[in-house]
Amino acid sequence: MLANKGVQLESWIKRRGAWGRIFSYLLLLAITLAPIVLPIYWLGAVTDQSNIAEIVALALIYIGFLIGLPFWGKRIHGWPHPFSRYGLSLRLQTARDLLLAMLIGMLGVFALFGLQTLLGWAEPAVPSHRFSRFVVEGLIMALAVGFAEEMLFRGWLLGELEADYGSKPALWMCALFFAAMHFIKPWAEIVRTFPQFLGLVVLGLALVWARRSPTGRPVAKVTHSAKLSNRARPRLGYPIGLHAGLIYGYYLVNVGGLSKYTGEAPEWITGIDNNPLAGLLGLVLLGAIAYAFSKTANPKAN
């Protein structure tokens, strides 16, 4: 009986469109993990350790998400190697792509604050006495966030969208969904920090184009007519590295105390609440990175 119900559910999901499949997977994930995650949240509340409980719960949810992907890709789409389809490949070239894109992201952030320093809008500061700790801590955090978000948004989500939609619709839907998921806050805050949403959209576009760029060939002309070899297929190395590089660069400058704003420029230029994504200069930086990767990107990741 249960096996028959499972076959019926699988058949029903296969007939759904991209968004139907996306929310079906998320719903199944929530139902499966609720008996494990909810007690963890409850335990954190009663022991006054809610922050630790939230970290543990989110880690378990993400592990469950990763475990489910191979079954989903094989049963729903018939893909023999789902992780490869989503762009995850344990190759040396992927590591090179990641490091190169991470360098691009970090240098972009440093250039942004360097320009602000030259214009008198920021000034160098004495680094925190814990700076060496922040170097290691920030690197681990940036790579973890970069991998987690890129596997979710530019791996699985983009793969589902590209299975049903053309290049541009999938691009914009992925970027807008990414921005919306990072912009869940009270309405008053949404209005006050709206420029940040624009920055998140541009970042989402840049990361999709990075995902679609063939491995080993960043910021260079790529022909789309010939079928890419397996070695040159777009993978997650570029988006993970770019995402991690932007986070790491800002973490070192902000948390590490390498620079501070002088208050000489309005927030709409430098960024609301000192967030570069919510300012004109940050938008220009992200726009330049997005444009560069758009020149190398294939129409789709697969």
Automatic annotation (TrEMBL):
Q: Which GO terms describe its molecular function?
A: endopeptidase activity; metallopeptidase activity
Question: Which residues are listed as membrane-spanning?
Answer: 22-43, 55-73, 98-119, 131-148, 169-188, 194-210, 236-257, 277-294
Entry keyword set: Hydrolase, Membrane, Metalloprotease, Protease, Transmembrane, Transmembrane helix
The Gene Ontology biological process terms listed for this entry are: CAAX-box protein maturation; proteolysis
- Which part of the chain is the CAAX prenyl protease 2/Lysostaphin resistance protein A-like domain? 134-213
- The residues forming the signal peptide are none
Q: Which PANTHER family match?
A: ALPHA_BETA-HYDROLASES SUPERFAMILY PROTEIN, CAAX AMINO TERMINAL PROTEASE
Q: What is this protein called?
A: CPBP family intramembrane metalloprotease
This protein's species is Leptolyngbya foveolarum
